[in-house]
Amino acid sequence: MKVMKKAKLLIFIDWFLPGYKAGGPIQSISNFVNHFGAIFDISIVTSNKDLGATEPYDAIDSNVWIIRDNYRIKYVDKQHLNISNYRFLLKEESYNTVYFNSLFSVYFALLPLWFAVRYKMRVVLAPRGMLGAGALKLSKRKKQLVLLFLKMSGIPNKIIWQGTASTEILEIKKCFGEKMQVKLAANLSAKMSESLVTKQKETATLNLFFLSRISEKKNLIGALRYLNEVKECYQVNFSIIGPIGAPGYWEECELLIKKLPKHITVNYLGAIPNLKLPAILKHQHVMLLPTFHENFGHVILEAFQAGCPVILSNQTPWLDLHNKKIGYDIPLDKPEDFIFAIESFAKMNEEDYEQCSWNAFNFAKEFCNNKEVIDANRNLFN
Prior knowledge:
By secondary structure, this protein is of the alpha/beta class.
């Protein structure tokens, strides 16, 4: 009987486990490996430091292949992020597909992408929300130059694009043209618990949390401004979870925090590894994330998995939340609606909140067991 060889995938990603501060992209590839490590022969090339770190990971060798349970990985130091090493990495094995998880990363997208296309390798690229209107406004000049370079090079026409939502497919085609080869494959989710722990909640009290990198794109300042307008008959305990991505932006947040009224308490919990999040979220009621753009938003799904409804901007794929009774998706030009949503959850008693919590949990369960999502991701690489 002939044994089929596994397809070989080479994945480039800026940061990976044990890193956690980059959030969503790490989770995307971690979930991908957990789903397909037994089906594909997976090799990962990543940085030897976490996002924002100055020192490499402890007890992990750099620039050598390390064998894990269902993949191998190479943590590359800065000295080896060069043309000769990219050529070696791409030619070292006969890879069936090279998978990129960024569009604007110089070292883990643009440079290796250039050589992969030059060597006529099969390439799949997931822009991970970087082509959204809100995302393109940040570091606008740099991104315009990169997009101009890509268009002039012809690279976008020679690769397969992964759109993780129908909105992202539109973003890719708007940027590079209708003829782009784009395949829809939503981000894979982590496997979730079969049970939900009931959360205690008092009427007129709310444990609200922000879970994301602290940067302009995620709009923590907007969240703090909404809280400033919440009526004083409601006690809101606001937890901020995530790494500080922009120190100057965080300083602006701290100034707003100091001016909040007494019935709004704020606790900054810092960056928390993904494995430790469930222990934190079991005490939280609702997530507030008025982001300027998310192409997927793993943190949103993680909130649902923990039985937490959400209050989001309408700049994510998670829409029609109020009709599903799992939260709100609100235009950013309607601050009064964000305030209304916060107060609506705050005024709930435990029985009403528990129903919303179960709605969120069951919604996540249905999403995570979606066979079509798993098949679409597998077919990207067949």
